[in-house]
Amino acid sequence: MDNSTIEQSVHILNSCDDTATKASKASENDPTEEEASGAADKSIVKLTKAERRAKLKKSKKEAKKQGKEAEPKVKQTPQEAVLAEVKEDLTAEEAFESKKNKLGELGIALLADPTSNTKSLKEILQICKDNNQAIVKLGLLSLLAVFKDLIPGYRIRLPTEKELK
């Protein structure tokens, strides 16, 4: 290959590159610019307005995602670590109080109308399966109190012949 052939090849590549750049800019900005330039290739697909918006939205989302990944993680100071631990303790205390109140409400509902609130027994049993031993004890004591009040009102007897059929 001689230098003139190489120069021609480079010139052709540059002109194709310029045409593709103009066409992509024209399709992003305004469709009338592409028609006015006349240099755009007809094989290039024009994006609709909705597709351009979606593409822009996607690129912004990816840039934001990359920005979050690039953020350096800040080490916690001892004060922040203690503060996080205190918040965790407070939420644990709030959860304990919440479960305690729930046990009380369920027990009262059961005592008020045992036949329509039988689901409350299941809920109390679910609370009794908690990992916190204090909650388990309170749940079992609540069940004991409920059963102690309910059982004397119900008579235990053998089923009749009619009930057996």
UniProtKB/TrEMBL annotation:
<protein>
    <recommendedName>
        <fullName>Nucleolar complex-associated protein 3 N-terminal domain-containing protein</fullName>
    </recommendedName>
</protein>
<dbReference type="InterPro" id="IPR011501">
    <property type="entry name" value="Noc3_N"/>
</dbReference>
<dbReference type="GO" id="GO:0006270">
    <property type="term" value="P:DNA replication initiation"/>
</dbReference>
<feature type="compositionally biased region" description="Polar residues">
    <location>
        <begin position="1"/>
        <end position="26"/>
    </location>
</feature>
<dbReference type="InterPro" id="IPR016903">
    <property type="entry name" value="Nucleolar_cplx-assoc_3"/>
</dbReference>
<dbReference type="GO" id="GO:0005730">
    <property type="term" value="C:nucleolus"/>
</dbReference>
<feature type="compositionally biased region" description="Basic and acidic residues">
    <location>
        <begin position="64"/>
        <end position="74"/>
    </location>
</feature>
<feature type="compositionally biased region" description="Basic residues">
    <location>
        <begin position="54"/>
        <end position="63"/>
    </location>
</feature>
<dbReference type="GO" id="GO:0003682">
    <property type="term" value="F:chromatin binding"/>
</dbReference>
<dbReference type="Pfam" id="PF07540">
    <property type="entry name" value="NOC3p"/>
</dbReference>
<feature type="region of interest" description="Disordered">
    <location>
        <begin position="1"/>
        <end position="79"/>
    </location>
</feature>
<feature type="domain" description="Nucleolar complex-associated protein 3 N-terminal">
    <location>
        <begin position="99"/>
        <end position="164"/>
    </location>
</feature>
